[in-house]
What we know:
By secondary structure, this protein is mostly beta strands. The chain is 0% helix and 48% strand.
Amino acid sequence: MPKLQTSLSLWQSNQPGICQQSGVRRSNWTALLITTWLSTGLWSGACSDGPWSQPAVEATVESNACWVEATAHQLATIDGQPPPPIGTCTTFAHHDDSYAESQHHKLLIRNTAVPCAGHVKPLCLRWIVEDANDQIEVVPPWDLKKDEENCPIEAGWLAAVPANGPGATFNIGYSPSHSLDIAPLRLTVITNDLRQPPRTFCFGFAPDCRLEPGLVTFAKSAGGTTQSTCLTVYNIGVGGITVADAAIDPADGPFSIVMPPKYGEYLPGVSTERNSNFIPAAHVCVKYHSVGAAKPESALLSVFFDMPPGKCLAKLAVSLPEPGTLAIDCGNPSGVSMFSFPKPVPTTAVCTLCNQGPSAVHVQDVQIDGDGAADTASNLSVYKVAMLHNMEAPQAQTTLASQDCINLQVTFAPEAKVLGPPATVRFGYSSLDVAGQQTIPIVPGPCATPQLSLAPSLQVVRVPFGGTWKSTFAVANQSCSNLTILDVCATQPSNSYSQSCQDSSAHFSLSAGLAPTTLPPYGLLTFDVSYDAPTFKSGIFEDELLVTYCPGTFAAGACSTEPVVEAAALVAEIALLGQPAPPKAAIGVTTTQSDIVAGKPVELAVSITSFGGYPASSPVSYGWTVTKRPAGSATWILGAAQVTDAPTQTVVPDKSGEYEVAGQIYLGMDQGGAQSPQVKVAFTVM
């Protein structure tokens, strides 16, 4: 049976047509309303003028009498369910990880008015967002309509919701971030439904805790020292939590809890009152006790509480000090580090070493080495090197604190006014567990002979009709003088002995115009050469890459000497159906990062990841090209070593900074084989 409920209300109205009986209408009436609610959703009553009926929310009206102008009715749901009681928030699960997936709630406002005598009013709507924070956002409905007649803008209405339509959907989204702006957001919805006052909907976070800071870093120090700090435990949700315990994992490390949070301490939820900035919090303190060995150490601090997910975390870590970094300044405008003796007269040249890192650097074993096997101690005796600190007596070794400097001084005393031989100043250095050697060249005579080197010297391309290929070439200035590149082109081979760019290649092209270009001393220039295979013509196409440069002084648009041309072979072949695909390669650095320091060899390795369609027994060789080095670095792979039979290569970085090497494999080249696309690897020298 339907459930019966009765209530007594006294209504008074001056609106005509509310009650009517036998066609009689009165403009003023007083109604004693006895309302009977049935589980069927119908209600009926009586007034002084006779029986009458009115629809309730989502109810069916079964009466011959009704309001002439039907009133708009508001019905709100959140995610398809009735909203929580007033003062209770709809919650999100909080995340500190900004990469966590966003969460959403949907607030739907519908107009459930039932038409009466062919009339129904729209639900006039406006809303106010209060206490907005930087994690929760309200996106209002975008497809609402205006109704100036029933919901005028002058009255403050923002939209009109038709009866029994899809309604107005507010999307409330939470984008996780590591923010302490966690106050609940409030969305107040105001309508023209006279039965319902403005309703405020609250959106906040489920009960949860957060430790601040989320990462505590202690500085590594000598054994026996202790450092302490305290962390704050916040309740960032709208419901209360009770702190239970705290622990560190692993428990046998250098970290320990010196002041745990109070057991059973209750942290109430974030206030749902407006304009409240209070965030409930507790505290926990930890210490780090150094145990000597200089190695990274870390642990997790957990604070447990009685609500899911049950704990919050902070990371405890020990940071190793950064090693010192040597910067070399020899006073050359080009920035190149070198001792220059342009004339055969007694001269002194100075290079300054400065420690730009936080930790001390030890410098020792300063000596002069010859650049070639023919050099002996006797012909190097024209040079003397000394390490001087603030013009004091020479030192055999020294320790440079952070931002401290020392001078390396080379004295040249020529014999019979003859230039000395090329040589190198070499010294060792160490900082923390990083050690290496550094070199500074001694350059006799003026820097007037630019030297250019081009790599790779050969590219053999095999692609199908309409295919493409791209290779990186590098041009290095291996001298202490400016070098001017006059022209770079891909060209067809000339029938004469001269090489020129008059006949451009029909298949190979450069990524950009590169001439004229001036490379500073030890400068490096890279560019791409592309091959676009024809779509209709097969065969083998043999072209050349030409780099023309000035080996002397370039001024007023002219070179003081005859230009020099460096060439690389460009060979392309159309891969027909049924022919094997090119091989593929991978490249990596086999030297551990801690051993990558200036002056020490770095080993690279190329491996074959695919033979394509070629036999695994095909002869293999390996190509190497330096495609990036720091300014002033002379690190380069010389011509003979650019192609090796072994899958490994060694380069010696001479300066701190970023380096990059391109490698590729040549498979069965003496049997009509092919080469792989280039693969590159980068490494950093500290």
